[in-house]
Structure formats: structure tokens, C-alpha cells
């Protein structure tokens, strides 16, 4: 394994300075490329019960891996306070991630607290969650009752052997499908299904997955295998470009492109020509979408990352626990976002081999 994995526990810094003068949030924040702050992804745990080869490979996240102690995690009260400040800066959508978010004890309580928040225009927050569905069948109703609106489920194959090669644990496809069906039943839709495609490992499942989810209420999305973090041993020749996914499906099930639902949507939309539903393509490697990226990420222990491929985060937890008030933290956040110029995927796409690869934060720590 060439690149060094950043052990999060080793990364602790003193509280950053509060810029002056203090400024009240306007909800109109924009970064150096003119991108607003619209989406916040919150990682509520660095733990997972899967070992997906593209995210938390067993070789690295083994029994000796040091996970964050519970005291290091943001409390639900701290997460909700930070979320309120992000909303004041314009955030309208919050996605709960991990690791596996359903492993965080009493997550329904956090969802209930976040569901009470409204956007600056008074609309309900778009509150969603990404899960591997291992606990979804059991928890779907309580998540819905707590105020969750939608779920996105990761499923990388229908064939059990291939699925287990991808997640490296003995978990059955049928149990994931049962979780999806239960989530649909209780109204946590429209449900999106995310399939990471790794060449030579599960790309033979592209068509079976498309056939299976066609003519269903679910939106299947194919994600190009990415060089996230430093642990998955990423190689460009294992990337199946989205154009190839469209070609393979289209040869049997003709597709037509569809306009985006909103600016900054990560998936390119395609519809089956015969009306059989919709798929999405998330093409971070071959068709980067940094120009509209309005996403910030809050790590499990309170650091803000302005890009999935960032190597360091801004320590909000230190500000909270040092007793700074919301106006001070909001000011610090405004300065952080205004200084943002991340566009890693664009740079990588233009120069896959040459791009200097510094240490990058692990995806399991900040959510995909
Ligand atoms: S690479 Fe970074 S800037 Fe580009 S879309 Fe992804 S998170 Fe946004």
C-alpha cells in the first residue's frame, strides 16, 4: 500500500482563531469559485460493519485500527448547533453518513432534533441518510417517525458472491433488498440505490442491477470508482467510465439523457426510453462536477472538510468546546467557505497521472 493512511485520532489541533470583525450570516455565502453553501454531509460515526474495498478495506481497517473514542465524537446537541449555523449560511440539505450511520446509538434522537430545523426561507430541511441497509429493515419505521425524509442505500451487486467480494463481510443481498422494501413501505422515498463500479470486480453486475431496478420506484445510480482517502489502492485502469456504463445498458435498454433536478446535483440523469424509470451516473473521475459543488462535510469529531479529497479539516469542535458563541463560529465558517477553491476532481480528470497526491482524508471518516 503506497500511500500513508491518516489515522484520525492522531490529528488534533488547538482552537483556530476567530476572524474579526464578527459578521452575521446572510445565507448568501459563496466561495472563491462563486459556489454557494447548500449541502452539508454529517458523519455521525467512523465505524462500519462492512469493509467495502473502495472505502474501508480490511487490510487497513483491521482489528488494530484505532477508532475514535466516544468522547471525541460530537454530541447530538453539538451536531444540531453546528447544523443551525450552517443553515444560517444557506444550507438546505443535510445528509447523515458515516461509516455506517445506523450504528450510532439513538440516531433517531439526532434525526428528531435536526428535523425541527427549517431553512432560512422557512422550508423544512431536506433531511436524508446514506446507509448500507444492514439495519434498515429493523429501523426504517423509527427513522421515519423521527423525521427522516429519504434514504440512499449502497448496493454494489445482486450476486451474493460478488456483493461479498465488494463489502468483504458475509452480508446477504436479500437482507439489503428487504431493507430497501421496508424503507419504501414506510415512505422513506424516493429511494436511491448507489452502486460503486470497480472494473474487474463487479462491472459484470451493471446490467443485472439495471434490469432488477427498472420499472421500480427506485433510482439506481452508478458511481465511478474514486481515489478517495489513501487506503483503497486506487488505479485508473479499474475505473469504468460512466460513458461505458451508458453504452452497456443502452445496448439492451435504450436510454435518453434528462436535465438535472437542480444546480449542483452530483448524478447525471438518464431515463429509459420506454418509460421504465431513471438511472443516475456519478462521474467524479471522467466528468468532474466541481464547478457546481456546494457541499461541505462535517467529520465524526467536528472538523469541516470543504472537499471529499481534502487532506485537512477545520476544527469546529475545538471552537465549540472552547466556549465560543454562535456568532463567532458563524464568522469563522464564513471565512472558511469564502476562501474555498477546491476542485480536486477537475484537476485529477485533466491530469490523472501527474496530479500531486498529498494525504487525503478517508471517506469513511467524512462520508461519501
Ligand atoms: S472533488 Fe471536491 S470540489 Fe470537486 S465535486 Fe468532489 S467534493 Fe466537490
Could you please describe the fold and organization of this structure?
This protein has 11 helices and 12 strands. The chain has 368 residues and is α/β, with parallel strands linked by helices. The protein has one domain: TIM Barrel, CATH 3.20.20.70. The model has no long low-confidence stretch (mean pLDDT 93). Helices cover 28% and strands 15% of the residues. It is globular. Helix 6 links the parallel strand 5 and strand 6. The protein has helices at 76-88, 107-115, 136-146, 160-167, 173-186, 206-213, 242-252, 316-321, 326-338, 344-350, 363-366, and strands at residues 39-43, 93-97, 126-131, 150-154, 192-197, 219-224, 255-258, 268-272, 278-282, 295-298, 303-305, 314-315. The longest helix has 14 residues, at 173-186. Iron/sulfur cluster (SF4) is lined by residues 284, 289-290, 293, 295, 307-309, 342-345.
Amino acid at each position: 500500500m503506497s500511500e500513508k493512511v491518516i489515522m484520525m485520532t492522531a490529528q488534533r489541533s488547538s482552537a483556530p482563531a476567530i476572524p474579526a470583525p464578527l459578521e452575521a450570516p446572510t445565507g448568501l455565502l459563496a466561495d472563491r469559485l462563486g459556489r454557494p453553501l447548500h449541502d452539508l454531509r454529517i458523519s455521525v460515526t467512523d465505524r462500519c460493519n462492512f469493509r467495502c474495498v473502495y472505502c474501508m478495506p480490511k487490510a487497513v481497517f483491521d482489528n488494530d485500527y484505532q477508532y475514535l473514542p466516544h468522547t471525541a465524537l460530537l454530541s447530538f446537541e453539538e451536531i444540531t448547533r453546528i447544523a443551525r449555523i450552517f443553515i444560517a449560511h444557506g444550507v438546505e440539505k443535510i445528509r447523515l453518513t458515516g461509516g455506517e450511520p445506523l450504528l450510532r446509538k439513538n440516531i433517531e434522537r439526532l434525526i428528531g432534533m435536526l428535523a425541527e430545523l427549517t431553512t432560512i426561507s422557512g422550508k423544512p430541511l431536506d433531511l436524508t441518510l446514506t446507509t448500507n441497509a444492514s439495519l434498515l429493515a429493523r429501523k426504517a419505521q423509527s427513522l421515519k417517525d423521527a423525521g427522516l425524509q429519504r434514504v440512499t442505500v449502497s448496493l454494489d451487486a445482486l450476486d451474493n458472491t460478488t456483493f461479498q467480494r465488494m463489502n468483504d463481510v458475509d452480508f446477504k443481498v436479500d437482507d439489503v433488498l428487504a431493507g430497501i422494501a421496508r424503507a419504501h413501505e414506510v415512505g422513506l422515498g424516493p429511494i436511491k440505490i448507489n452502486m460503486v463500479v470497480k472494473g474487474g470486480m463487479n462491472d459484470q453486475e451493471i446490467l443485472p442491477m439495471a434490469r432488477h431496478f427498472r420499472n421500480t420506484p427506485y433510482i439506481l445510480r452508478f458511481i465511478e470508482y474514486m481515489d478517495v482517502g489513501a487506503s483503497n489502492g486506487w488505479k485508473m485502469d479499474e475505473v469504468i467510465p460512466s460513458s461505458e456504463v451508458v453504452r452497456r445498458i443502452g445496448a439492451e435498454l435504450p436510454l435518453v439523457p434528462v436535465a438535472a433536478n437542480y444546480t449542483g446535483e452530483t448524478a447525471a440523469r438518464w431515463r429509459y426510453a420506454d418509460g421504465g424509470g431513471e438511472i443516475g451516473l456519478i462521474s467524479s473521475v471522467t466528468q468532474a462536477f466541481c464547478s457546481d459543488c456546494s457541499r461541505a462535510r462535517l467529520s465524526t469529531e467536528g472538523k469541516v472538510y470543504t472537499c471529499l479529497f481534502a487532506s485537512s479539516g477545520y476544527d469546529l469542535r475545538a471552537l465549540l468546546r472552547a466556549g465560543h458563541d454562535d456568532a463567532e463560529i458563524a464568522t469563522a465558517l464564513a471565512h472558511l467557505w469564502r476562501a474555498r477553491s477546491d476542485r480536486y476532481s477537475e484537476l485529477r480528470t485533466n491530469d490523472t497521472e501527474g496530479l500531486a497526491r498529498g494525504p487525503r482524508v478517508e471517506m469513511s471518516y467524512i462520508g461519501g
